[in-house]
Amino acid sequence: MAIRISPPTITSSFYHLSSISPFQSPHSLSHPSIWSPTTTTTIRSLNLHPSRKNPTALVPKASSTAEFSPEIADVLGDVNIFTASGDSVAFNQLWDQSEGTAVVALLRHFGCPCCWELASTLKESLAKFESAGVKLIAIGIGEPKKAQILAERLPFPLESLYADPERKAYNLLGLYYGFGRTFFNPASAKVLSRSRFEALKKAVKNYTIEATPDDRGSVLQQGGMFVFKGKELLYAWKDEGTGDHAPLDDIINICCKVPVA
């Protein structure tokens, strides 16, 4: 059933999700951390390029005091997620890690209206990515059947969509989690701008809350955006709050500047 979205409806839908069941903290994982021991603050948008003198050169309008480990791709490599069709796949099989370029978008969860907006925006840019030889990988939280709902109703290409129901990649990347981040972070207000609101209305015309993960605690997870060239991390963005997505122009510019096979 399609829903009609207005600013009050968006806000009330977030609170509805928060009241479904008690929320739990993310599951602890046995994987090694990709964060340095001195990491104490947040990373917004970080352009990492080891070949440059400054390995933490910042993308314009970005700020950061943290760095990912150079082994980030290897740490993520053994994480198993699922295709939207339900097949298990290792993270290191998602793109050519010898020289391929990939945009890895981690959505909050498949029942998040703002993530339908982001998925719609990424789909509209798919031709640009493909023409540049860049692979688009969109990962969401929830079971593969939830991914299929988004893919069918948005619609979104199944071959670019993956499910991480246990939030393994999200935890290893240190993406934000919590009630305050999800419902009260000032960064979330940008979704109510006129341009974003119109895009959101268009994206959720076939929305259904049935795409929300069975593990309701997952709705407190925030997403992020990453660009890889082989195993090298070129760009990283952690959403500060719901709807605080990486500027797509930054992603396009990074991909266009990277020579791809």
Automatic annotation (TrEMBL):
This is Thioredoxin domain-containing protein. It comes from the Eukaryota. Pfam families: AhpC-TSA_2. GO terms for cellular component: chloroplast. InterPro entries: PXL2A/B/C, Thioredoxin-like_sf. CDD domains: PRX_like2.
